[in-house]
Amino acid sequence: MKDIQRVEAKGLKIAVIILTFMGLLGLVVSQIANSAAILIDGVFSIISAATTLIAIKVSSLLTKENEKYPFGYAGYEPLYVLLRSFLLIITVLLALLDSISKIITYFTTGNIPQVNAKIFMIYVVFIALMYVVLNMHYGKYCKLTHGKSELLLAEKFNAKANSMLMLGVGGSFLIIGLLKYTPLKFLVPISDSIIVFFIAVMVIIDTSKLFIKTISILGGKGIEVEEKKELLNNIKGKVSNEIDIINLRVQKKAKTAYVVVDVDLKDPNVERTKIKNACKTIKDIIKDKYEINHTFISFI
Fold first, then answer.
1. I need a labelling partner for 35 at 20 to 30 A (CA). Which of 86, 222, 244, 281 fits?
2. What is the mean pLDDT of each run of 10 residues along the chain (300 residues)?
3. How far is residue 145's CA from residue 226's CA, in Å, rounded to a whole number?
């Protein structure tokens, strides 16, 4: 596990540098291009860089235990996700309100600052390529962990999704620009605000789902039924017939799993060696499934 944490930390530190550069670039270019869409992308990158630093710290604490935290600091990982989701929702909500304000201003006054289309498109293509680079970077470090780092896998997915999103933004901008040759040409001046509006709505919906899911995890929600059934059948198939697995309870906080296995001895006189072997088998199966885990075997 320490090797995975070391690889995670190195990969994420490099990503922080890239994200910080992208964020600062977005803040500067948004002012030059007069684009709220670019501004929201820059702020998103800055938030990602800042929260990634928190993720590095949280990752390093997962397996550390002490008197105050007898089961480690696993609870801080979903709190990190909660914080990141909250910051993103607030940022995008402000962008949504700003876009609505500009659209209303345009329809009431007919006057609104224009976006520099050339700078906008150059930025979109460049940032999309930067996200591709980030995706490749995360992919490289995922391979070093043999795909066992959920954090790197999640960031890899996000980078890929963001590259597609930026290209979508660029495509949308071009399509809206073509409206000047149609009866809908009056929408062209607010094309940037329209794009921000729809992106903000989508991001708020998706991030809110993650926010709610994280709250349910902190509230004690267990794993999905299918995942539990698969693990239970795996355990039952490998332990001695003299030992009956009554129940299995699993709560997972990001990478850390808390597992309680209720066991019944069919024969009260079963050999102690068989009991020890069964306990070892159960713990090995759980460790294969959840590398960081706290497993408790309860004999009914």
1. 86
2. 76 91 93 84 85 80 76 77 81 82 85 82 88 88 78 74 72 74 80 80 82 83 89 87 86 85 82 86 91 86
3. 26
The residues, ordered by sequence, that sit 6+ positions from 278 with a Cβ below 8 Å of its Cβ are 239, 240, 243, 263
Shared domain check, 210 and 246? no
Token duo for residue 2:
């320490």
The total domain count for the chain is: 2
The helix/strand/coil state of 116 is coil
Residue ranges making up the domain that contains 160: 2-218
DSSP for 177-226?
HGGGGSTTGGGGGGHHHHHHHHHHHHHHHHHHHHHHHHHHHHTT----HH
Domain containing 270 — which CATH number?
3.30.70.1350
Cβ neighbours of residue 24 closer than 8 Å, sequence gap 6 or more: 42, 46
